[in-house]
TrEMBL record:
InterPro entries: Glyas_Bleomycin-R_OHBP_Dase (IPR029068), Glyas_Fos-R_dOase_dom (IPR004360), VOC_core (IPR037523). This is GLYOXALASE FAMILY PROTEIN EXPRESSED. It comes from Salix purpurea. CDD domains: VOC_like. Signal peptide: none annotated. PANTHER family: GLYOXALASE FAMILY PROTEIN, EXPRESSED (PTHR47802:SF1). SUPFAM superfamilies: Glyoxalase/Bleomycin resistance protein/Dihydroxybiphenyl dioxygenase. Residues 8-138 form the VOC domain. PROSITE patterns: VOC.
């Protein structure tokens, strides 16, 4: 029996050298709402995704030696064709076709495919820091 009862995903975090730029990207692409953030010794921006889920953008430590963004598990370059098997976070939208068109209109490089044996379409792309994103279709 699991030790945790009623566990659910509360938030994900992304470390960035430019949390304002990253926040603006997520607000523009997904319409996420910027919410009040606590005051830490480093800068943070919190974005509300749903009533019980948020993205925490955290100022990158200047001592960090790792490259910005994970890109993907299979590629050292920003190539969205590697994301179905690489590191990514997935959101669902009901306006899939218009959402994909908005990405194209912004010049964002994407990779699309469908889930085998299911009526779900997927589009993969990167945020400005190289974090992998997937958006899946959802019934209207």
């Amino acid at each position: 029996m699991a030790a945790a009862k009623g566990a659910f995903l509360n938030h994900i975090s992304r470390e960035s050298s430019d949390i304002r730029g990253l926040a603006d990207f997520y607000k523009e692409i997904f319409g996420f709402e910027e919410i009040e953030s606590p005051k830490f010794e480093f800068k943070v921006i919190w974005l509300k995704v749903s009533p019980d889920f948020a993205i925490h953008l955290i100022e990158r430590s200047p001592d960090t030696q790792l490259p910005e963004g994970p890109y993907s598990a299979a590629s050292p370059v920003l190539d969205p064709t590697h994301l179905p098997r690489g590191h990514h976070v997935c959101f669902s939208v009901s306006n899939f076709d218009s959402f994909v068109q908005s990405l194209k209109d912004k010049g964002i490089k994407t990779f699309q495919r469908s889930v085998p044996n299911r009526p779900i379409r997927q589009v993969f792309f990167f945020d400005p820091d190289g974090n992998g994103l997937e958006v899946a279709s959802r019934d209207e």
